[in-house]
Design brief:
It is built from 21 helices and 20 strands. By secondary structure, it is an alpha/beta fold. The longest helix is centred in the middle third of the chain and has 31 residues.
Length: about 675
């Protein structure tokens, strides 16, 4: 990589400063020039103090008449600057305040005119101004970058350091990028086609802009560069992966078995399922490793596609494994797999922490003998003694629920094995590229259940009305879920404005209200056999009201449950709320989802409003991405900072599409 040299090659950076930069995640010259200003001061945009809203930042201009210092603390002083301003043609004298460290020298000259950048405050009923930056009006830098400060005291890396070191780094970068080709010369072609700035000029323009138009042009160019670099890096990684052949044979033999399984299904696969399965089969028949994401909204039919892929492995004489985050989801999948496998004479086994020791030993023995079997399990698959002798396919469902190391541990059970990730959070092309990078992506269309679930927000004062309505529904032999964010009140939550609703506490309350109905609680502290018994009774209609934690977020299928109540909805992400909503509306009847919680602040209100009006998982994921970022949404990259410093995959869709279209056209 060009510009991978250590920052200490610059004159302005010694060993101590290099260490501080590393602590901030800046390891080389490329990181340094990508440490962008957090904001800019525009000294061309001068205002009068009376024009500035309280607590807003602005630039004012005046002549220093006098100043005095006052020591406040050991290392803090207050500078009061008596200044003459011209406001609406009249001369006005005001005092400007500035706080500064005692080791910083005051270099103001009485009689000179200065720009003051700072914040307007209200002090004793009058407008006052506290300055952060003071520069002479003769300055040639009318647009000044403001960088986030690193460190404290004398060792602080402040504005002067950043301006000096980055300027030095830009000179070095200009020489390196100009003298070398590779990715930079390819990007040059893109800048010419889209009439962007040359890359080196863009970096100068973002750090040392002459005016606003130059800054805007620089930002657009750098955004294109970030998208371009990410796409090229992903392509290189994918190309390198495709150069390495799998440790397994090509899995073509199982295609006929899959065709037989499809013909036995009690339903017809939808077009998007057929397309996704064909893409997966093509990868599995290739001598190179499959590294694919299968994404689709709640109820879109991902599981059956994944099971058919596992069947292809088994039909090719290999073994297949599926890892899921919970035992309930594993139980759900094993039932679905057994229905498909039984008519074909193939075996699928369940391995969890609750699996009896004798059954576990039998499964491990079969894995060692190269018997072509399918194995569905939880984290139990990661244990050292679970050894696959001929693993052909790994499926990781709800992949964002697993940490990076957990996913890698399973993949290391067999080197370069075909791997299929599954996600119930479908996202558009630009976001998929931003989050998943080198994965190939198959997307399933939403099922016909979209629109079947109506969602409402219920304020606290209408809770009794909701419960009365719930009684009517239960009397008609419908069933309901009530979701809570915690198991029991521990008094450890300091958020008094939003008290945590707990499963065990609410169960006791609901038992009093719904005396004629069977109210049962399910949560993570129960033993697996207890959970299994509860879910069996719920699915068979013996339980009317199931009070639960997020344990029921996935892997639950009860067509008779049509009412969902979510407490403390503000504590869940939109994608998680959508997953909960997917538990109802699975039967023929219309379903309803009721949100309850303490929604304060305009952003929180907009967020819930968006959820109530939208049942499209991809739109919710996009909105969630905007609010929370990629890491929480995907789980694929759960460590490290984003490679995008100023590019936003949601707001900059056009830029992403420009770059992707250019790369595809040029066949890079």
């Amino acid at each position: 990589m060009i510009l991978s040299e250590r920052t200490s090659i610059l004159k302005s950076i010694g060993p101590k400063r290099e260490t501080k930069l590393k602590e901030a995640g800046i390891y080389n010259i490329y990181d340094l020039i990508n440490y962008f200003p957090r904001t800019y001061i525009n000294y061309e945009n001068v205002m009068n103090i009376n024009q500035i809203a309280v607590d807003s930042k602005a630039v004012i201009k005046g002549t220093v008449l006098a100043y005095k210092e006052k020591k406040l603390k050991r290392h803090l002083k207050l500078l009061t600057i008596t200044t003459l301003f011209v406001e609406n043609g009249l001369e006005v004298q005001r005092d400007i305040s500035k706080f500064y460290n005692t080791y910083h020298k005051v270099s103001l000259i009485v009689g000179k005119e200065y720009f003051f950048y700072g914040t307007a405050k209200l002090f004793r009923g009058k407008k006052a101004f506290t300055a952060e930056e003071i520069v002479e009006t003769k300055t040639k830098k009318l647009i000044r970058p403001v960088y986030s400060v690193i460190g404290k005291g004398r060792a602080q890396l402040g504005q002067n350091f950043w301006e000096k070191s980055i300027q030095e780094a830009l000179i070095y970068a200009n020489e390196q990028i100009s003298n070398k080709g590779s990715m930079y010369s390819l990007y040059h072609n893109l800048t010419q086609e889209l009439e962007l700035l040359p890359l080196t000029k863009a970096y100068v323009g973002i750090h040392i802009p002459k005016n606003i138009s130059e800054l805007n042009a620089a930002v657009i160019t750098i955004k294109h560069w970030e998208a371009f670099k990410a796409k090229i890096d992903a392509s290189i990684s994918r190309t390198n992966r495709l150069k390495k052949q799998c440790d397994i044979s090509v899995q073509e033999k199982g295609i006929e078995l899959v065709k037989n399984a499809i013909s036995n299904l009690p339903f017809a696969l939808r077009d998007s399922q057929i397309k996704a399965l064909a893409e997966i089969q093509k990868d599995m028949c290739s001598p190179y490793q499959m590294y694919r994401l299968l994404q689709g909204d709640v109820g879109s039919g991902k599981t059956v596609v994944a099971i058919l892929a596992m069947l292809q492995s088994i039909g090719s004489g290999l073994q297949a494994a599926m890892m899921v985050p919970t035992e309930m989801l594993a139980s759900q999948h094993i039932k679905a797999a057994e229905k498909i496998f039984k008519d074909l004479g193939k075996k699928v086994y369940l391995l969890t922490s609750s699996t009896e020791n004798s059954v576990r030993k039998e499964i491990l023995a079969k894995l060692k003998t190269k018997e072509p079997i399918a194995l569905i399990g939880t984290h139990a698959l990661l244990q050292e003694d679970v050894i696959f002798s001929d693993l052909g396919l790994i499926v990781i469902d709800e992949q964002h629920k697993f940490g990076v190391k957990q996913r890698e541990t399973l993949m290391q059970k067999k080197h370069l094995v075909d791997t299929l990730y599954m996600s119930a959070t479908p996202i558009p092309r630009t976001m998929a590229f931003a989050i998943y990078r080198e994965l190939d992506i198959s997307t399933l269309e939403a099922s016909s259940r979209v629109g079947k679930v109506k969602s409402y927000f219920v304020p606290e004062y209408k809770k009794t009305d909701l419960y009365n309505y719930l009684k009517v529904e239960l009397e008609q032999e419908n069933q309901a879920y009530v979701i809570c964010p915690s198991i029991e009140n521990t008094h450890s939550d300091n958020n008094e404005s939003s008290p945590m609703v707990a499963v065990l506490n609410l169960k006791s309350e609901l038992e009093e209200i719904f005396k004629d109905f069977n109210v049962v609680a399910i949560h993570g502290k129960l033993k697996e056999n207890e959970k299994h018994e509860i879910m069996t009774k719920f699915n068979e209609g013996e339980i009317d009201l199931l009070v639960a934690t997020s344990l029921v977020e996935v892997g639950i299928h009860n067509p008779n449950a049509n009412i969902l109540v979510i407490n403390n909805c503000e504590r869940f992400g939109l994608s998680q709320l959508h997953q909960f909503r997917g538990r109802v509306g699975r039967g023929k009847e219309k379903a309803q989802c009721f949100l309850m919680g303490n929604i304060t602040g305009e952003l929180a209100k907009q967020r819930i409003k968006f959820f109530l009006e939208t049942d499209d998982g991809s739109k919710l994921a996009e909105y969630d991405f905007k609010l929370r970022g990629a890491g929480e949404l995907s789980g694929v990259k759960q460590h490290g900072k984003s490679e995008f410093r100023i590019l936003n995959p949601v707001e900059d869709k056009e830029i992403f599409n420009n770059v992707i279209d250019f790369i595809e056209k040029e066949r890079i």
